[in-house]
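Anyone else keep sequences and structure tokens together like this?

Example one:
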Amino acid sequence: MARMPLSEFQERIYTLSYEELVKSPEEKTKELTSWIGFKWDNAYTKYYLKKGYVNTCSNVQVRSAIHSRSLNGWMNYQSMLKPSIELLSNYENVISP
């Protein structure tokens, strides 16, 4: 299969490394909000302090600050992800395991 250049989509896709977000949450969140055209608000990095109803099964995760406990957690599922990893390898600029 021919490799498809991701560069043709770069203007519409924002790439954010979870590892970088964990290391520098405020900096990376500011970059993202700037990219989507939002005005910066310090509350963006304090989302877990917000009170109110959350209609999601991941209620505990929504109420937690960004943390490093999940770094490389995907490796536990690497064998199940193999078909997706192979499919994505057809694109340039995709981080491979």
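And example two:
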Amino acid sequence: MAILRIYTDGACSGNQHETNVGGWGAVLEYGQTQKELWGGERNTTNNRMEMTALIEALSALKKTAQQIEVFSDSAIENFQNGMETISLLTIFSMSRK
């Protein structure tokens, strides 16, 4: 079985201001097949765009059980929510139920 590789990135000019423009992109590779995803928002943050890239890539998957490698220039695997650290992949998994 081929490994699905996901390459992600996100950026924003400034953080949470109505004139900001942020963008995200993801490339999914499975064997010789490649798919590109992208989007953007106003009044956002760099971290939000980084997480959005991965969430959108995972949302585009057709199979739920397969080996995945994620490549990112950001430490987006965990974030603080109150006093506990929650894995982004756990949240994604919960949202797909």
